[in-house]
Structures are given as structure tokens and as C-alpha cells.
Amino acid sequence: MNTKELIEIEDNYFINTFTRQPIVLDHGDGVKVTDIDGNEYIDMFAGIAVNALGHNHPKLVKAIQDQAEKLIHVSSIYYNEPALIYAKKLIELTSFDRIFYANSGAEANEGAIKLAVKYTGKSEVISTIESFHGRTVTTLAATGHEHYHEPFKAILPKGFINVPYNNIDAIKEAITDNTAAIIVEPVQGEGGVNIPDMDYLKEISKICKENNIVFIVDEVQTGFGRCGTLFAHELFDVKPDIMTMAKAIGGGVPMGGILATDEVASAFVPGDHGTTFGGGPLVCAAANAVLDVIYDDDLLTNSKEMGQYLKEELEKLQENHDIIKEVRGCGLMVGIELTQPGAEYVDKLREKGFLINCTAGNVLRLVPPLIIKKEEIDEFVKALDETL
Ligand code: PMP
Fold first, then answer.
1. What is the strand order of the sheet 40-43 is part of?
2. 14 Cβ partners below 8 Å, 6+ apart?
3. Which of 133, 139, 184 for mutating ligand 1's site (highest number of atoms within 8 Å of CB)?
4. Are residues 43 and 69 in the same domain?
5. At 47, is the pLDDT very low, low, confident or very high (cuts 50, 70, 90)?
6. Residues making up the binding site for pyridoxal 5'-phosphate
7. Is the pLDDT of residue 294 over 90?
8. What number does the ligand 1 atom closest to the CA of 256 have?
9. Which of 39, 43, 254, 298 would you call most buried, defined as having the most Cβ atoms within 10 angstroms of its Cβ?
């Protein structure tokens, strides 16, 4: 079938949820993906920050193949080695004590909110405007986009308060005796790559401690090296009570998780929470490989260095293009805010062989694989220069 025929299948048979780009991707290798017509693209979007190692990294592929041959899944009433090994390895790299395995970012955030509510016995959650925490009913309420709420207002749970991002006074005003948690992205992704002031997360952490509120960081998009450190909150020198993760954790297999301190985690007892697929051997074998490659190949350094390089090159472009309002970046999570809507530039760049996306209407978002090299960045910046 050709591209047109395949896309018609979606038009005819899928529930209409996504506005997709009109290409059918077939295979990937490193920073490149190829569509079924043989067109090659430099993937500056990496499945929204999922493919940290690049596409089809041989060590990730081998780990998945080896595990698939041994054991793909077991019920969560049994132990499996990859899940146990991974938990110890990851926790030793963080300030947290305990893990729960989920399957997606939304599911991780659902669990985090339940844990905070159970721990505090309270029922209000403060989140930020322009934040994104998921599409399930509870995480939708936490997500700070009014237009996503609108059709579902009747069923959204009460107790969710969205306050402006990077604004401590707004948080202080929103706190009540019934506040269970504050949930924030260390850097807002869907909201347009918004980087807060250096002391924002620290202030939140302090307020949470003073008021016995659970501090949740959503690292679903920023985690696993995206911002140049394993987790972005490390940049702001804070120790949250709960962290949620997904996307890059499994390098492309559906996986998510919650990390929590011993104190907060102790609120859950058997029966409070669970999942069929979370922490299965196949996805945990993948996660083990991802974490190993991040350190073996020093991808945190590459994220930092290439992120800085990309940002600098874009800032040079800004001098010649009035349409660029601002360049924002944190490692290899970079946003180019335009003075006008960005969708047409996404299309034009795709036609030139580069995949990016536009978020918040006018921010071109770049989240390439962490293995990206200078030459590939140069190619992209040249194409963007011509396009603008
Ligand atoms: N949190 C953040 C910060 C996200 O960016 C996303 C997805 N864009 C989610 C949660 C939801 O993740 P998922 O799509 O895996 O449910």
C-alpha cells in the first residue's frame, strides 16, 4: 500500500484523536528515520523525547531480543529479575528510596496523585497553567490547559487548582488546609519549553515542607538526560517527595514509573494500587539497557554540550530572523518561540527532511536523540535558516 492508501485507513477506521504529519515511518537508525517511500529524515523530535539513544540502538535491540527469547511477561504477583535489578540501579542514582512501575506518563501521574492523597489524607492538588500531565480524567484535571478540560468539565474531579507557572505567590495563595500535593514539570514541555527561575523549585520544596504537602515533579518529558542531567530537577538542587517518569525510560517500549521517598511511599499498602503490565521483564530489560547506554556512552555530557551548541547556533539565527522571538534551552530540550504560529514551518522542514513539532501554537520544539552530533545540528540549523 502507498502512503495515501495507508493514511486513508486511519481516516476511515481510527477514532479521531491525533492530527498527524502525512508520512508513514518505516525504519530508524540513530538520529534518522525513513518513511515507506524511502525519504530520510533527521529526527529532531525523537517521538517527543522518547528515543534518547537514537532509533534502534543495537544494545537496546539486543536487550529486548534476548529478553523476548527468555520471558516476555509474567503476572505482577511474581518477581522478575530485570525489574528488581533496574529498581536498585535507578534508585541508587537518585535521592529517592522506592519505585512503582507504570506503563505511561499519565498512569505514573495518576499513581503519584493517589499516593500523595493517601499519604496526607487531603484532597486538593495544585498544578500549573500550561502544564501537561496526561489525558486520563485525573491527570487531565491536573493538566493546565482549559481547552482540554472544556468538553469533560462535568466529569473532572474537584480539588485541582491550576496556577501560573514560575510564580511562587500564586502557589502560596492557592494553598489551603486541604492541599495534598503540588505537581510541576521542572521544565514545561507541551507548554512551550518554559524554564523556570533557578529558585522556583526550591521555593516550592520549602513551601511543601512547611505545610506538609507532597512535592511531585513530573519528569516524564525531561527525564533520562533530556536536560543534561539524569533528571532535570537535579539542576535546581531539590529533593522532591515523588518523581514521575515515562517516555525515554524504556527507549520506545511503553513504560513509566514513580519514584518516592520511603516516608511518602509508606502510605501505600497492598491493594492500594496496581497494574498488569507495569514492571514486566521485557520493558525492564529495555530500561536497563537505556540506563546503561546513557552512562556507558556519556550521553548526559552530550546532551549538555550539544544542547548548548544548538542553542548558540539558534541564537545566531535569531540575529537575522525577526520572526524568532526567543530561544530557550535546557540540554537537548530546546524551544524556538516565534512571533507567529509555527505549524507551517514544521511542514516546510519536514519537506526538507527534518522532523520537529510546534507546541503552544508558536514554539518550535526540538528534542532530538541524545546521541546527536554537531554535523547533524549544523544541517538542521542551515535548513531552518533557509526555511525562515
Ligand atoms: N507528563 C508530561 C510532562 C508529558 O509531557 C506527557 C506527555 N506529553 C505526559 C505526562 C503524559 O504521558 P503519556 O502520554 O505517556 O501518558
1. 25-29, 32-35, 40-43, 354-355
2. none
3. 133
4. no
5. confident
6. 105-106, 132, 218-221, 276
7. yes
8. 15
9. 43
Mean pLDDT of 131-158: 97
pLDDT at 350 over 90: yes
Residues 92 and 226 occupy one common structural domain: yes
CB 355 less than 6 A from any atom of ligand 1: no
- 218 close to ligand 1 (CB < 6 Angstrom): yes
Determine if the pTM surpasses 0.95. Answer: yes
CB of 220 shorter than 6 A to ligand 1: yes
Let me know whether 149 and 269 are in one domain: yes
The pLDDT > 90 percentage for the chain reads 99
Classify the complex by whether its ipTM is higher than 0.85, answering yes or no.
Answer: yes
Q: What is the mean pLDDT of residues 62-79?
A: 97
The closest-lying atom of ligand 1 relative to the alpha carbon of residue 136 is 16
pLDDT above 90 for 37 = yes
For residue 89, give the CATH number of its domain: 3.40.640.10
Return the residue whose CA atom lies nearest to atom 5 of ligand 1: 221
Cβ-proximal residues to 125 (8 Å cutoff; 6+ apart), any chain: 113, 116, 117, 141, 142, 159, 160, 161, 179, 180, 181, 182, 183
Q: d(Cα 328, Cα 136) in Å, to the nearest integer?
A: 29
For ligand 1, say whether the CB of 187 is within 6 Å of any of its atoms: no
Q: What is the per-residue pLDDT across 85-105, written as a single tens digit (0 to 9) for each?
A: 999 999 999 999 999 999 999
State the residue range of the domain holding 121. Answer: 59-296
Whether 303 and 352 share a structural domain: yes
Q: Whose C-alpha lies nearest to ligand 1, atom 13?
A: 105
Determine if ligand 1 sits within 6 Å of the CB of residue 104.
yes
Question: Which residue CA neighbors atom 14 of ligand 1 most closely?
Answer: 105
